[in-house]
Write a structure and sequence with these properties.
The chain is α+β, with helices and mostly antiparallel strands. The chain folds into 2 domains: 117 residues, RNA polymerase, RBP11-like subunit (Gyrase A, domain 2), CATH 3.30.1360; 111 residues, Beta Complex (RNA Polymerase Alpha Subunit, Chain A, domain 2), CATH 2.170.120.12. 25% of the residues lie in helices and 37% in strands. It contains 6 helices and 14 strands. Strands 3-4-14-11 form a 4-stranded antiparallel sheet. Bound molecules: zinc ion.
């Protein structure tokens, strides 16, 4: 790790993790992280999954429910619908100015009315906030028969994955950066050809780019060490962040880093308090 700056006033040494963007799509980001270690990377992973808040339905009031599903089951299904989240607008309810009573800055109301033979989908939820909407409109919630009715009011709030996984913004995973040593030996490859996935061989050769894509090399490791040997870099990691759609993957990372800094500052302050009380 590289020591960047010594913040003497706080007594904290800062280290800089190096970051390289490898792939970026709307809901997916792949980064190469170096000058770091497993514990830091895993802390970042845990913070993204459990501390980055998103909106999800938390309370449901049923006015009518003739469907075959119990209220509790339907409420649970509603809670699992990912909702687009604007973290600049909303506060977590317990930290809001309304002191947890509920206001337009910490909750969004949805209504749903359906009647007659049909499948009810997430797109039928009417939101009172134009920015807070189901990410996917085609999630089936329940089936209704003739003359059956469903009417409900649902309230979505900001919450964190550590209280319920429905608030988790996505999935995060990482692995050490692989180093592929490929030897082009046509005879040998012919001998082992059937053991490798068909897609791994391009123009009669094991192709590095293809092997790295979607971690295909993992399926090829150990088949023949003379053709392909996989080593891993100790301090370099490939870090995958996939969003469920509530917020963008880059926002997931930046918010998690803010939480990381907050936690470290809290820790340092707690240590200082302890020292001063000892005196
Ligand atoms: Zn509020």
């Amino acid at each position: 790790m590289i020591l960047v700056e010594k913040r003497e006033e706080r007594g904290v040494e800062e280290y800089k993790m190096e970051l390289k963007l490898i792939e970026k799509t709307e809901n997916n980001v792949v980064l190469e992280l170096s000058n770091t270690n497993e514990s830091e990377i895993n802390t970042l992973r845990r913070l993204i999954v459990s501390e980055v808040p998103t909106m999800a339905i938390e309370e449901v009031e049923f006015i009518k429910n003739d469907s075959a599903l119990f209220d509790e089951i339907l409420a649970h299904r509603l809670g699992l619908i990912p909702l687009t989240t604007d973290l600049k607008i909303f506060n977590e309810r317990d930290k809001c100015k309304c002191e947890g009573k509920g206001c337009p800055l910490c909750q969004v109301e949805f209504t749903l009315v359906a009647k007659g033979k049909s499948t009810v989908y997430s797109s039928q939820l009417e939101s009172k906030d134009e920015k807070t909407l189901p990410v996917f409109g085609n999630i089936p919630l329940v089936k209704l028969l003739d003359n059956q009715e469903l009417e409900l009011i649902a309230v979505a709030v900001l919450g964190r994955g550590k209280t319920h996984m429905k608030f988790a913004p996505g999935v995060v995973y990482y692995h050490h950066k692989p180093i592929l040593k490929i030897t082009h030996d046509a005879k040998k490859l012919e001998q082992f050809k059937d053991k490798y996935p068909k897609t791994a061989i391009v123009d009669g050769k094991l192709d590095e780019k293809t092997l790295l894509k979607d971690n295909l090399y993992e399926a090829c490791e150990g088949i023949c060490d003379e053709l392909l040997k996989v080593d891993y870099e100790k301090n370099k990691f490939i870090f995958h962040v996939e969003s469920f759609g509530q917020i963008k993957p880059m926002e997931m990372i930046t918010v998690a880093l803010e939480k990381f800094n907050e936690k470290i500052d809290d820790f340092v302050d707690a240590l200082k308090d302890k020292k001063s009380t000892k005196k």
